[in-house]
Specification:
Length: about 60
């Protein structure tokens, strides 16, 4: 399982597996255990079943 540093993403392009180039699909989302305003998105490759965990910053809401 690979971890990637959080970054702002505005691209709608699909994620591709870094191992085999296959299409990654989202299989889970959960709050980060130690970082506030961050979620962890877990992806699985549709070809080789490798995993990728991607931390995503949650934007502040103006309530």
């Amino acid at each position: 399982m690979k971890h990637i540093e959080p970054k702002e993403t505005t691209s709608l392009a699909p994620l591709l597996c870094q191992r085999c180039g296959g299409l990654m699909r989202l299989i889970g989302s959960e709050p980060h255990p130690t970082e506030a305003k961050t979620d962890l998105l877990t992806y699985s490759c549709t070809a080789c079943e490798d995993f990728l965990v991607l931390p995503i910053s949650i934007p502040a809401t103006n309530a």
